[in-house]
Specification:
Blueprint lengths: L4 H4 L2 E4 L15 H6 L1 H7 L3 E4 L3 E2 L11 E5 L6 H13 L3 E6 L9 H6 L13 E2 L19 E4 L4 E4 L14 H15 L5 E4 L26 H4 L5 H11 L7 E5 L5 H8 L8 E3 L23 H15 L6 E3 L8 H4 L7 H13 L4 E5 L20 H13 L4 H11 L36 H6 L4 H14 L1 H5 L1 E5 L6 E8 L2 E8 L6 E3 L8 E7 L11 E3 L5 E7 L1
Parallel strand pairs: 1-2, 1-13, 2-5, 5-9, 9-10, 10-11, 12-13
Antiparallel strand pairs: 3-4, 6-8, 7-8, 14-15, 15-16, 16-20, 17-19, 18-20
Helix pairs in contact: 9-10, 12-16, 13-14
Bound molecules: 1-deoxynojirimycin.
Length: 563
């Protein structure tokens, strides 16, 4: 495989609303980001992925776009955006923008036109159907609860929205839609950006006929992923996008692709014949989901054996065939230290262990803002403190329609809410964590006096300094980027261990995913003549015999094995 800059890069995701507020309106903004560029440079990241900053009524915090070529008023001006981009480029940091084109806002001029009449030129930009016996055209559920269809009285038809009713799905079957999207992509690329993260890009082709999800005869709406992910024309649309846009620029493209398999991902990310640099897969994000209809909470315990199986399948599945993205968190997911680690007494150790896990696999790592501090989930006492549309809808549906006890519903919110990731970035111990001098749009996590950037910079043992080292190691050791991954100790219930091999260069990664002190026995077939510790989250005796170790809680070690 050829080497490309996006393979060697580490990406940092900014959720602008929660990153840094420069003007005291309580909402993060572009000038706030500009003020923190040296912080990003200090961390050593190569690329910023910026969640949407376009004009939006903010039904879904910017993932509902009403003007693709304008900056959201609360975030600043186009001149601010240009200054931000220049500031990044001056520091050697590239910028990847979010591309949200499965749907627009219902306030986008295309939709405003489309809903006016059945013969409006923009009507066919969206997916319209007549009702069935006075009901929705099919039984598809929206990701945010309820039906995926909204009735529009003006023309007596329903429109499709896989997300909120203010996010109508674009009709990609219409070549004019594709032409508009490709044009707006070129518009941003010509302004100097370095790539796109493509929101739910594998949902743009729907199964013709939009069939019902087979279900026992009840009137519940059903998740219809099999009819809208990886649909029949997806690859054709992506190839057209590649031909019309992507192939003309040297850029990073990452597709958000729920339900995608390694085989599909390999096809999409193959360097010669694929269309995108990499995709975000979701299998490891579903390991703690309980999808059984009887489940009240939707949450279950996850098992290390499942994590090993899933990650190994992706590592081996794309090796030499495509390219992985590596992530444990983003703006839609709970904080990894609360989910896969221990956000209590081993917060620092487990955050570092998870960081090691992430950065030592083959692929391009993505760090979500605050992950480098070991920021944790939040547990607001009242649903009134939550802001996320998905959280609020799910809570209402659970309590009002399914009769679930409000206290239990709130516990689920604590574990799963997307707002866990969206509390403001914790910069220092001053009021509102230094995020704003006004009132933040969502409350700060009360642990900010101890978990914050100022503390992390001053403490040589912080998660931040450990992440810096992980990022630096990747630059110094191409085995971390390109080496083959091989799982060892497949069945160990607490230890996740693997090797990475590139020519004669070989690393051993040992991770204790528990708060206990399990014994590690290196399998005999992993032979070596000497070893050197590259990174670890505890003090280690260099002379220790690494064939047999007793690991400390959430211990992580990476060794170079000499042949
Ligand atoms: C995925 C985004 O990450 C999420 O935040 C958003 O709500 C949906 N797509 C809809 O755009």
């Amino acid at each position: 495989m050829t080497k490309t800059w996006w393979k060697d890069s580490v990406v940092y995701q900014i959720y602008p609303r929660s990153f840094c507020d420069s003007n005291g309106d309580g909402v993060g903004d572009l000038r706030g980001i500009i003020s923190k560029l040296d912080y990003l440079k200090g961390l050593g990241v190569d690329v910023v992925w910026l969640s949407p900053v376009y004009r939006s009524p903010n039904d879904d915090n910017g993932y509902d776009i009403s003007d693709y070529r304008a900056i959201m008023d609360e975030f600043g001006t186009f001149a601010d955006w240009e200054e931000m981009l220049a500031g990044m480029h001056q520091r050697g940091i590239k910028l990847v923008m979010d591309l949200v084109v499965n749907h627009t806002s219902d306030e986008h001029p295309w939709f405003v036109e489309a809903r006016k009449s059945k013969d409006n030129p923009y009507r066919d930009f969206y997916v319209w159907r007549s009702g069935r016996d006075g009901h929705e055209p099919n039984n598809w559920a929206s990701h945010f609860g309820g039906s995926a269809w909204q009735y529009d009285p003006a023309t007596d038809e329903y429109y499709l929205h896989l997300f909120s009713k203010k996010q109508p799905d674009l009709n990609w079957e219409n070549p004019m839609v594709r032409a508009e999207v490709f044009e707006l992509m070129r518009w941003w690329l010509d302004r100097g950006i370095d790539g796109f993260r493509m929101d739910v890009i594998n949902m743009i082709s729907k199964t013709p006929g939009l069939p019902d999800v087979p279900a026992a005869s009840d009137d519940r709406y059903r998740y219809a992923g099999q009819y809208f992910t990886h649909g029949p024309r997806l690859l054709e649309f992506l190839r057209e996008m590649k031909q019309q846009v992507l192939s003309r620029y040297d850029i990073l493209t990452v597709g958000e692709t729920p339900l995608t398999t390694p085989e599909q991902a390999a096809e999409i990310t193959n360097e010669a014949t694929g269309m995108l640099s990499m995709v975000f897969q979701f299998e490891h994000m579903s390991l703690d989901a309980d999808i059984s209809p009887a489940s009240a909470s939707g949450v279950s315990a996850w098992r290390l054996s499942d994590l090993k199986r899933v990650m190994t399948r992706w590592q081996k599945g794309l090796e030499g065939r495509g390219w992985n993205s590596l992530y444990l968190s983003n703006h839609d997911q709970p904080r990894p230290v609360s989910r896969f680690g221990d956000d209590g007494c081993y917060r620092v150790e487990s955050a570092k262990m998870l960081g090691t896990f992430l950065h030592m696999q083959q692929g391009t790592p993505y760090i979500y803002q605050g992950e480098e501090l070991g920021m944790t989930n939040v547990a607001f006492a009242s649903i009134a403190d939550y802001r996320d549309i998905a959280t609020l809808n799910m809570y209402r549906e659970a309590v009002e329609e399914r009769g679930i006890d409000p206290q239990l519903a709130l516990k689920v919110v604590h574990a799963r809410s997307r707002d866990n990731a969206r509390t403001p970035m914790q910069w220092d111990a001053s009021a509102e964590a230094g995020f704003t001098f006004g009132t933040p749009w969502i409350k700060v996590n009360p642990n900010y006096p101890t978990i914050n950037v100022q503390q992390a910079l001053a403490d040589p043992n912080s998660v931040y300094h450990y992440y810096r080292k992980l990022i630096r190691l990747r630059k110094e050791n191409s085995v971390i980027v390109h080496g083959a991954y091989d799982l060892i100790l497949d069945d160990h219930p607490e230890i996740y261990a693997f090797t990475r091999t590139l020519g004669d260069d070989r690393l051993l990664v040992v991770l204790n995913f528990s708060g206990a002190t399990p014994r590690f026995d290196l399998p005999g077939y992993v032979s070596f003549s000497g070893h050197e510790l590259l990174i670890g989250n505890y003090e280690v005796n260099p002379a220790e015999d690494i064939h047999h170790l007793t690991l400390r809680p959430y211990e992580a070690r990476v060794y170079r094995l000499m042949q």
